[in-house]
UniProtKB/TrEMBL annotation:
It is found in: Cell membrane; Membrane. The chain crosses the membrane at residues 24-47, 59-78, 90-108, 129-151, 196-224, 236-259, 274-291. This is Olfactory receptor. It is a multi-pass membrane protein. The gene is LOC103551574. PANTHER family: OLFACTORY RECEPTOR. It comes from Equus przewalskii.
């Protein structure tokens, strides 16, 4: 259904390129990325679920991170793959708003989940004696509830703002998905209020978690500097290494797209940046956490051994 104040009932997603030779290459490239992301994230979810040794607060949050990464990759990539093999990638107005809602929900949820993981690392390193008491199952569930409430609130704000726009005929979305900025470009009425909503929600969705992460890591760094043994410092740094890499990749690419005015960041350049945090980051996250994590590698070996012997 189209919005009551809009004459547009469907949108055409222009995708990444209109060159046939390049489209086939990109189809197989992103199909490979999606396969790796699916196998990696669902594999990590399964591994954590099957191994009681990984039933700790850190892996509880990692379980949800993998679940979110899988979901928002699935929200975007299948529709994008269709654009490489069809003449016109059409999406209905209601479908476009639905995709936008779930995309915003999962991305904002991931942003706040990464800040919750930073708090978990702070307690683990700075207050190890009370770690299991402080990060009790009840506390972890409350943190996770807060993560999804913020995700839902942000997604409702973005989707409601875009759904209120009037589209008078232009329906070519210069993107591979229904993203906020390309849809704002199509509006035939003033988008000042909508752009203000985007800036406020994105500032909260990125700003609050980043401040939390910076404070957590400042306290962690201060604590690490008071550790006298080199081995102890190395162990503390390795505990945070994977999380720091994931945070840098996610926030760096997201902030580059949404915290710059469209006049500074052209939409074509924004599409390339969007690829990074919608496709590459969800693919890399399970690889980063599994290849750099001793507990995950040990659990994987035990699980494979059980399957082989059974």
């Amino acid at each position: 259904m189209a919005a009551t104040n809009s004459s547009v009932t469907e949108f055409i997603l222009l995708g990444l390129t209109d060159q046939p030779g390049l489209q086939i290459l990109l189809f197989f490239l992103f199909l490979g990325f999606y396969t790796v992301a699916m196998v990696g994230n669902l594999g990590l979810v399964t591994l954590i679920g099957l191994n009681s040794s990984l039933h700790t607060p850190m892996y509880f949050f990692l379980f949800n991170l993998s679940l979110i990464d899988f979901c928002y990759s699935t929200t975007i990539i299948p529709k994008m793959l269709k654009s490489f093999v069809s003449k016109q990638n059409i999406i209905m107005h209601a479908g476009c708003m639905t995709q936008l809602f779930f995309f915003c929900f999962f991305v904002i949820s991931e942003s706040f989940l990464l800040s919750a993981m930073a708090c978990d690392r702070y307690v683990a390193i700075c207050k190890p004696l009370v770690y299991m008491v402080t990060m009790s199952p009840q506390v972890c569930l409350l943190l996770l509830l807060g993560v999804y409430v913020m995700g839902f609130s942000g997604a409702m704000a973005h989707t409601g703002s875009i759904a209120s726009l009037t589209f008078c005929g232009k329906n070519l979305v210069n993107h591979f998905m229904c993203d906020i900025l390309p849809l704002l470009e199509l509006s035939c009425n003033s988008t000042y209020v909508n752009e203000l909503v985007v800036f406020i929600v994105v500032s909260i969705g990125i700003g609050m978690p980043i401040v939390t992460i910076f404070i957590s890591y400042a306290l962690i760094l201060s604590s690490i500097l008071h550790i006298h043994s080199t081995e102890g410092r190395s162990k503390a740094f390795s505990t945070c290494g994977s999380h720091i890499i994931v945070v840098s990749l996610f926030y760096g690419s997201a902030a580059f797209v949404y915290l710059k005015p469209p006049s500074i960041l052209p939409l074509d350049q924004g599409k390339v940046s969007s690829l990074f945090y919608t496709i590459v980051v969800p693919m890399l996250n399970p690889l980063i956490y599994s290849l750099r994590n001793k507990d995950v590698k040990v659990a994987l070996r035990k699980t494979l051994a059980r399957k082989i012997f059974s």
